[in-house]
Amino acid sequence: MKLEVKAVHSGYGKVTILHGIDFHAGSGEITCVLGANGAGKSTLMKTIAGHLPVNRGEITIDGKPITGATALQVTRAGIAYVPQEANTFAELTVRDNLLASALNFTGTASRIDETYSRFPILKERAHQQASTLSGGERQTLAIANALIGAPKFLILDEPTAGLAPIFVDRIVDWICELSREGMSVVWVVEQNPEKILNISRTTWLIDAGRNRETLPSADLLQPGRLQEMLL
Ligand SMILES: Nc1ncnc2c1ncn2[C@@H]1O[C@H](COP(=O)(O)OP(=O)(O)OP(=O)(O)O)[C@@H](O)[C@H]1O
Ligand SMILES: [Mg+2]
Question: Among 46, 60, 89, 120, which residue's Cβ finds the most Cβ atoms within 10 Å?
Fold first, then answer.
């Protein structure tokens, strides 16, 4: 499955944030998006996910336009999105989060058990309200919610920001596993991106709502290269 964003303009009301962005991801790979605070990374993800309108340009999946699709249509087309913030149903228990996420799909009953075997911590916390989970547990739930419909594409907006190293490692391992199973992943990275760059093929650098450079992630792991690029 291939996702293509072509010369997309988008933003909030009359304020344009993305000024003709291009972006490609797919074929079971992990693709990184990197840029300074306010560069427009989350805006790009919200636009792909159907949460913001595309003012100009086009978004396609396997060559078919999804420009203007609603968030639900994008989800049902196989693209799951984990927002940077407010990414669980805070008032619901872990189990009810998973059940609520499953409502968008048919034939997901067995997937709750599958979710518990992939993420045992969620089984332990099944009856706890999401708002009372630790940061790492909550991010795990957000990812599990996104996976409930067996997507082909997973978009993660800074899923490891502020988490303890043990949860960062767990999330990196889970995402590697999903990628080996054939899922394509888009990962917005911010602080300490080395672990994630290490498992990704390509990184798209964006700056002030425009493409800055697209390069093999391994290049950014050369000493000093990342600092140079983020300046
Ligand atoms: N709801 C909104 N209404 C108006 N402007 C917004 C809104 N959300 C974001 N912006 C603006 O859009 C620009 C890009 O924000 P965005 O959240 O996409 O950046 P980002 O690259 O994800 O940054 P960060 O690394 O801090 O998450 C910023 O100038 C921000 O102030
Ligand atoms: Mg962001």
Answer: 46
Q: Which ligand is nearest to the CA of 193?
A: 1
Q: Ligand 2: distance of its center to the CA of 190 in Å?
A: 9
Residue nearest to atom 4 of ligand 1 (CA): 12
Domain residues of the chain, as ranges?
Answer: 2-83+153-230
Rounded distance between C-alpha atoms, residue 119 and residue 13, angstroms: 39
* β-bridge mates for residue 214, sequence order: 204
User: What is the number of the ligand 1 atom nearest to the C-alpha of 188?
Assistant: 22
The alpha carbon of 142 and the centre of ligand 2 are apart by a number of angstroms equal to: 16
Question: For residue 215, what are the β-bridge partners?
Answer: 203
Q: What was the pLDDT predicted at 225?
A: 87
% of the chain residues with pLDDT over 90: 85
Top CATH class of 2-83+153-230 equals alpha beta
pLDDT 10s digits, 16-56: 999 999 999 998 999 999 999 999 999 999 999 999 999 99
DSSP structural state of residue 193: T
Q: Which ligand is nearest to the CA of 157?
A: 2
